[in-house]
């Protein structure tokens, strides 16, 4: 297993659509394990493959601790997840995202959904989810379609958040360049 870097807004790969996988084989299981390790280390309760730059329709999650502090880990993996039914009833959660750190906003989504997917053994399964599991599944499936939770909030708020992250990325790039320039300049200074 290996920790993988999580892409941060405004990385364009977060806006790409993931492709279905042919089957859950050893390579996909290894990727699922990397995703789980990365998610737990973050820490987060869900992670989509697109968030680590893998354009495959895969997601992992574990909402057990969010429901009960004492609960032990309950990792879940989903390949080619597909929402086959959603309730008209809606529910609202204060959502965050590992790719948009430290931003939390209320998002309204269907309260209950049914999802068809391939499990770790490449068997087709269906799950009916409600509560935090339903929200988390919808949030992660959105990622596989290049959709982020800020797309569900007001345009004004979304633009403010986007600007903030574009600015931060620019600042990081400038800092990295300055560090590099200083490193390159150092031998000359040492000569003097
Ligand atoms: Ni997210």
Tell me what the structure shows.
The protein has helices spanning 26-41, 64-67, 131-144, 155-191, and strands at 46-48, 58-61, 76-86, 90-97, 100-110, 113-118, 124-129. A hairpin with a 5-residue loop joins strand 6 (113-118) and strand 7 (124-129). It is built from 4 helices and 7 strands; from the N terminus they run αββαβββββαα. The chain has a single domain, classed as Peptide Deformylase. It binds nickel (II) ion.
- How large a portion of the residues is in β-strands, by DSSP E? 25-35%
Helix content: 25-40%
Give the terminus-to-terminus CA distance: 48 Å
Low-confidence stretches: none
Overall geometry comes to globular
CATH top level assignment: Alpha Beta
The distinct bound ligands, ions and cofactors come out as: nickel (II) ion
Structural class: alpha+beta
Radius of gyration: 19 Å
> Could you state the oligomeric state of the chains shown?
single chain
**Largest beta sheet: what is the strand line-up?**
1-2-3-6-7
How many helix segments?
4
Order of helices and strands: HEEHEEEEEHH
Domains counted in the coordinates: how many?
1
Q: Report the mean per-residue pLDDT as an integer.
A: 94
Number of strands: 7
Give a short overview.
By secondary structure, this protein is of the alpha+beta class. It has helices spanning 26-41, 64-67, 131-144, 155-191, and strands spanning 46-48, 58-61, 76-86, 90-97, 100-110, 113-118, 124-129.
List the helices and strands and how they pair.
Layout: H1 26-41, E1 46-48, E2 58-61, H2 64-67, E3 76-86, E4 90-97, E5 100-110, E6 113-118, E7 124-129, H3 131-144, H4 155-191
Antiparallel strand pairs: 1-2, 2-3, 3-6, 4-5, 6-7
The structure holds nickel (II) ion.
Residues 97-99, 139, 143 line the site of nickel (II) ion.
